[in-house]
Amino acid sequence: MRQYGLRGVGLGLFSLCVALALGPGTPEEIQMAGGGAQVEIETGPAKLVALTFDDGPRLSTTRRLLDGLELREVNATFFLVGQRIEGCEDLIEEMAEAGHQVGVHTFDHVMVTDLSREDFDLQVGKTRALLTDILGEGEFWLRPPYGIVDESVECWADGPLILWSVDPEDWKDRDTDRIVAAVLEHVQDGDIILMHDIYESSVDAALRIVDALTSQGYVFVTVEQLMDLRGVEPECGVCYRACPLPEGEP
Ligand code: NI
Q1: What is the pLDDT of residue 20?
Q2: 175 a catalytic residue
Q3: How far is the CA of 171 from the centre of ligand 1 (A)?
Q4: Residue 100 is a catalytic residue
Q5: What local confidence, expressed as pLDDT, does residue 41 receive?
Q6: How confident is the model at residue 249 (pLDDT cuts 50, 70, 90)?
Q7: CA distances for 91 relative to 50, 59, 84, 167, angstroms
Q8: 3-state SS of the chain?
Q9: Quick one: 165 exposed, middle or buried, by C-beta within 10 A (0-12, 13-18, 19+)?
Q10: What is the pLDDT of residues 179-200, one digit of tens each?
Q11: Which one from 189, 196, 204, 228 is the annotated catalytic residue?
Q12: How far is the CA of 233 from the centre of ligand 1 (A)?
């Protein structure tokens, strides 16, 4: 069991994405980092949301999630723990080939603010190197465990830092009904939802969330697609939690 007690500390320091509207109805072609797949999405009035999964991969649960997402033709973002990669190489390859975004969540699931520069490079760099071996060159954006960063981490990240705006705390009670309800109650256009693909209950909840929000007109995109569609340029060392449309846009 991992400790998440410090979740959310310091989130107020982080700025939201400044989102720019794209022309309504313009088909936008997106190149995926780490995946190479291309998708076409209608921009404009569609409500966008990014499902993100931390702490995997885990063969059984991640496989079931990938199958469920494929059935629904939905893409998500996976922030992987380096020490869990061995033995899951084929799964990760499939993940990227299906168009999902792949990022890093450190090698040992450690709090990055506790690390020396050398240890940070080991935790993040080693995981990126493993992903490069499997997927080829890619950016592999970082999600810091517990969502906690400081100025050093921002300097060292070598890419954007992806946080979240909706957290159903799916690790806590593993109660699928409660997790689904927590997300549906809070979700808004442009949100980044935090979940964990290592729990059966989270996989069940995620697929129910996809079905419910799809029927409400939401389109599921990767974090990279979300930023791209909202005209947000990913910057090194900057934290992103959501990409809502700016005030006044339809
Ligand atoms: Ni985590």
Answers
A1: 32
A2: no
A3: 10
A4: no
A5: 52
A6: low
A7: 21, 7, 12, 25
A8: CCCCCCCCCCHHHCCCCCCCCCCCCCEEEEECCCCCCEEEEECCCCEEEEEEEECCCCHHHHHHHHHHHHHCCCCCEEEECHHHCCCCHHHHHHHHHCCCEEEECCCCCCCHHHCCHHHHHHHHHHHHHHHHHHHCCCCCCECCHHHCCCHHHHHHCCCCEECCCECCCHHHHCCHHHHHHHHHHHCCCCEEEEEECCCHHHHHHHHHHHHHHHHCCEEECCHHHHHHHCCCCCCCCCEECECCCCCCCC
A9: buried
A10: 999 999 999 999 999 999 999 9
A11: 196
A12: 25
- Which pLDDT does position 46 carry in this prediction? 87
Return the bridge partners of 142, or none: 104, 161
Full-model pTM: 0.83
Q: Which of 119, 116, 167, 174 is nearest to 146 (CA)?
A: 167
Give pLDDT, residue 246. 78
Interval 194-247: pLDDT, tens:
999 999 999 999 999 999 999 999 999 999 999 999 999 999 999 999 999 877
Query: Is the peptide bond preceding residue 246 cis, with omega within 30 degrees of 0?
Result: no
